[in-house]
Amino acid sequence: MGVLVRSVLAVVCALSLAACGLGSGGTVPFQVGPGSIRPVPGLEGVKITVGSKEYTEQVILGYILEYTLEAAGADVRDLTGIVGSRSTREAQLSQQVDVAYEFTGNAWINYLGHEKPIADTRKQFESVRDEDRARNDMVWLEPGPMDDTYALAASAAVVQRTGVRTLSQYADLVRRDPAAAKTCVDTEFRARQDGFPGMAAAYGFDPARARTPILQVGIIYQATADATECDFGEVFTTDGRIAALDLTVLEDDKQFFAHYNPSVTMKRAFFEAHPEIAEVTAPVTAALTNEAVIELNEAVDVDGEDPSVVARDWMIAKGFVTAR
Question: Which residues does residue 130 pair with via DSSP β-bridges, in sequence order?
Fold first, then answer.
């Protein structure tokens, strides 16, 4: 999908979820049986719509959540792949999506409007949990250990040429020679306060001075590795393409970027009607380490596997579910 089309769709989604085809959702790609996740009487036959954003990691997490709830006996509907964070959030607030994995840092900065992240991951989670419940009746379950945050990366050739290994050194390069620091970003990162503008403020350079071509996230990794269109590129720290393409992640030496720990989220009324969701999802969320998610992302983005298959096979390998 082209950048312009993607941007237009995100705006349309935000204005009218129905225009993006968000209805009752589709069927879960594969049927799974109980493993260590056993059928729960309180969830038997309960209709639950699971949503996710459109990028690889979120889609995988969406499928993992679907298989978890299916094994517990729920009647699960699939609404993975919603374009954009705002559209996914609106789908939850309007209760078109019942449950979804969301990231603490994203909510703290973009949904709750704070400019500075909280350095302690536990305190950030608790602050998001308490404020989002008070303001929006949203419930956040215990988060997982993975921390998928933003970063800038460069190829070995660019690191050698520029000597840039930290974001402070990157900021110096932008101030000194912006033509040598061409940085590929996607639309959201270029605009979000937990993205490029906020990073520029924290590191003391003018974002307007930087050269920031806009590309789709999936294209940025290879373009950064090739070091032709991009000297540096926006990446997610749990993306398997970082290692596969031998990219160097610049050190966030001022610790600007927020922590992004995953939590199962839902409206309070839905949680109060189905509190069993917390116990059912807890062991799965706890298994979502950086190492596990990097492998899952790599299977999709590097090896070309289907995310629904990757999610199912991981759930089976962990013993959470069985194949049907």
Answer: none
